[in-house]
């Protein structure tokens, strides 16, 4: 079909420019000297503008209309391809340029000031900028909601986790809230009875890197199609044929970089495992932020913190750091180190048991901010209440380790936070289904994990965006999202 | 003036895309894993096509016409700005798309096959492809010549060294030919009387890198605005606020990487020293390939192989490799190592005395190939004759170390070779003029070389493309290109 060909050629062409943006973005975070930033930012902004123009070209509307008319002749994959192109096109073109610009300015201003304000614990200064950002996010949510005929917050969710709704999250997180705080307390009490020997540094960076690369290979990361580097904030970037993951090294604690590398390797394998025949098309991209996070958490939590994997890591870490006789490196102790649970203020430092608490409190706040049920001024109080309720910690007056700790809201990325915990729930559900078909622990213990990756490849990676998250889960596990698996998993591993 | 503003905005916008191409090109040569090449090549080709389209947009012609009409109102810098934009625009738009495509295909085919053919010493196979490339280069030269109203080969020269002509090069190289072969012989004879102790490896890569970075700092390279990395073929890339130079390390010979780094640092300082107020405009770019090479050779030859610099390097190399008592690292010996002259087959391995011989023979051949005075089949014979005449070496039957050694002709870059030797001549002339104003040896000996760089900045770097190469030389040295300074320099240093 001629118009479908035109659409796909257009998006493939666009993907070449997105490729360049991905590599230059990676470079900016890993390689670029400080002085290069100003000109680079200008170049990246020019490219972003060009990509936006390409994404919103007027003729696309006609092509979509034409394809829609003849959609009965399309195969299932073609239909999915059209739907994904259309989703990106609508998302890009629905906002008026004035709003896009205002958002970008307010976000940049808020984020820039936040870097200092956080250090200064300056809530009043931050709140002033955040109010602007929230006002614009509300405007954005309403415009997107009108287009999608849904609730405003759901329209923002759709940017990160298509098909997800606040109603569904309320239900799922509601179930979590029933048992999580109590479970956290029970795990903490149980672990207080178990002595843990913390491995003592220094762990030289070169040895940590070698260990990380060794584990990446064991996890099937292809260095023919990717690299590992260093950045302040770890991420997975690049393109499917050239995936760039990063970490940062703490010479006193090798587990932090190692688990980070394993996490990013999960993201990376999803990207490296996307179907080549759909390369360059939206339908060939990863399904969603939540599904992406499910893969990184599958690697980091489901696999790497399991007892049999701790045995593998233990051997490798002993060799890497020459600690054959160090009691901290005995397998049982190391597994305890990797599964230590400790309620804390900071989300990015949280273990997998307390992590959902951080997310739920953010979700409750941002949902009500967008709906207009609450205002920026009430964030600190609500934060403090939820932290006390979930984790027994107060953040009263402690803004920098409370509601000012994350970058996400500064530029208006509302709807993003829930995907972290959705990913954790998906991962637990996938592992539960996998265990019914595979002897997962035996496979891990064997050191050859391919059957696990083949399963993920078949059920997740190779399907890209050819179907919805609900369908992916249903086809892979026999049901749509069911948070009971996460409870079973957490309580099984930790209690 | 409205149309001038439009033109400058257009070229500045284009420079943002060229920025991304430079960084992704650097990445391709230094960081990219092999598997990433296919998608990267597609992305880079898409970007090149887009840049070409932007460079040849039809409305540019109208804007230039309008600006030309009102040119009497322009300042000198504005006039230069218009001239440089126009030069790039004309160069990009004069060739018909069919020729551009045919050139690109024939060049890619010839270069790709050459990589294997060179190893196989397969002249016949190579000649077949090269004939296609030469035929298209002749076509290109004629079209460009018609536009510029000049001789075909001069039109190609203009791509690399604007304003230069074959007539002038014939004259300059003619003078060189008078004395160079004899001088080479005399230097070789003289050096045969001087014992040289070759420093013995291993010289670990990390120590070589540290030494290179130390010397780069001494030469004023700003790591705030640039980096040093590794690639198979050393180059200077990136953008003026983020200059990326590369080298390769031979653990048996530290001088090769060190001199390479110093060479690229010369290129880098030119880029880092370009005027910021003209950034993004053609007039703000380096003047030409020849002037660029003059800076790298000024650093590598004029500075770094001088006796006082050898003293500096000697101290630093002793420390870097812990060779305080190694006789090879005594200053007189090290200076001899750095100034060894030895006729050889390979251009890229040549010293500064024999290097022009390699260039002159290539120039003679390519000039006659383009004018139609000779054909591809006669290249090997003519190569052999010239090698015997200039360097006393025969390349009969030895194609791979003869006329098949370079990549330049494979994709049709005729007109490029002469700029290497023009650069060497410019460098000698600049140094001669500098010595009349500065105590260059004393400055080098002091270790603080800033006065030298200030002089280059004032006379070369800061002037960018605001005037012609002739004028640059005249303003800096009191005369246009005068090859006598190179003779004086070579004979003074080596005889």
UniProtKB/TrEMBL annotation, chains A, B:
Biological processes, Gene Ontology terms: proteolysis
Listed InterPro entries: Peptidase_M32_Taq
Cofactor-binding details, from the entry: Binds 1 zinc ion per subunit.
Gene3D superfamilies tied to this protein: 1.10.1370.30
Pfam family of the protein (one): Peptidase_M32
Catalytic residues in the record: 264
Keyword Zinc: yes
EC number of the protein: 3.4.17.19
Keywords: Carboxypeptidase, Hydrolase, Metal-binding, Metalloprotease, Protease, Zinc
Molecular-function GO term, any one: metallocarboxypeptidase activity
Positions with a binding annotation for Zn(2+): 263, 267, 293
Cofactor names: Zn(2+)
Top enzyme class: hydrolase
Catalytic activity: Release of a C-terminal amino acid with broad specificity, except for -Pro
Family matches, as CDD domains: M32_Taq (cd06460)
Job description of the protein: Broad specificity carboxypetidase that releases amino acids sequentially from the C-terminus, including neutral, aromatic, polar and basic residues.
Family: Belongs to the peptidase M32 family.
Protein name, UniProt field: Metal-dependent carboxypeptidase
């Amino acid at each position: 079909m001629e118009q479908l060909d035109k659409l796909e050629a257009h998006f493939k062409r666009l993907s070449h420019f997105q490729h360049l943006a991905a590599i230059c973005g990676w470079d900016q975070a890993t390689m670029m000297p400080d002085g290069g930033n100003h000109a680079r930012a200008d170049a990246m902004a020019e490219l972003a503008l060009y990509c936006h123009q390409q994404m919103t070209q007027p003729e696309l509307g006609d092509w979509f209309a034409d394809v829609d008319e003849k959609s009965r002749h399309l195969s299932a994959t073609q239909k999915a391809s059209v739907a994904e192109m259309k989703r990106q096109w609508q998302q890009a073109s629905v906002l008026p340029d004035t709003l896009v610009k205002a958002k970008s300015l307010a976000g940049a201003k808020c984020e820039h000031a936040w870097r200092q304000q956080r250090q200064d614990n300056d809530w009043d200064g931050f709140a002033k900028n955040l109010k602007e950002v929230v006002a614009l996010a509300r405007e954005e949510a309403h415009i997107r909601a009108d287009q999608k005929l849904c609730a405003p917050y759901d329209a923002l969710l759709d940017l990160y986790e298509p098909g997800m709704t606040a109603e569904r999250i309320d239900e799922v997180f509601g179930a979590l809230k029933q048992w999580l705080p109590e479970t956290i307390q029970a795990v903490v009490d149980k672990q207080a009875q178990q002595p843990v020997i913390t491995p003592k540094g220094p762990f030289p960076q070169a040895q940590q890197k070698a260990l990380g690369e060794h584990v990446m290979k064991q996890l099937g990361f292809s260095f023919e199609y990717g690299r590992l580097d260093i950045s302040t904030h770890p991420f997975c970037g690049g393109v499917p044929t050239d995936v760039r993951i990063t970490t940062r090294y703490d010479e006193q604690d090798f587990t932090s970089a190692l688990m980070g590398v394993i996490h990013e390797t999960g993201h990376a394998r999803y990207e490296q495992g996307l179907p080549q025949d759909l390369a360059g098309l939206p339908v060939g991209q990863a399904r969603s932020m939540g599904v992406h996070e499910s893969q990184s958490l599958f690697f980091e939590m489901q696999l790497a913190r399991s007892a049999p994997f701790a045995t593998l890591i233990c051997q490798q870490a002993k060799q890497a750091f020459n600690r054959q006789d160090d009691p901290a490196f005995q397998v049982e102790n190391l597994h305890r180190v990797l599964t230590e649970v400790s309620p804390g203020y900071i989300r990015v430092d949280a273990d997998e048991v307390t992590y959902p608490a951080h997310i739920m409190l953010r979700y409750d706040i941002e949902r009500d901010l967008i709906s207009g049920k609450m205002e920026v001024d009430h964030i600190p109080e609500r934060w403090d209440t939820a932290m006390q309720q979930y984790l027994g910690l107060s953040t009263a007056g402690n803004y920098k380790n409370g509601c000012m700790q994350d970058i996400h809201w500064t530029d208006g990325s509302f709807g993003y936070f829930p995907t972290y915990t959705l990913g954790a729930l998906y991962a637990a559900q996938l592992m539960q289904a996998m265990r019914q078909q595979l002897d997962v622990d035996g496979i891990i213990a064997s050191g050859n994990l391919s059957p696990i990756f083949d399963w993920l490849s078949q059920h997740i990676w190779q399907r890209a965006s050819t179907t919805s998250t609900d369908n992916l889960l249903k086809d892979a596990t026999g049901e749509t999202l069911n948070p009971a698996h996460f409870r079973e998993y957490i309580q099984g591993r930790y209690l």
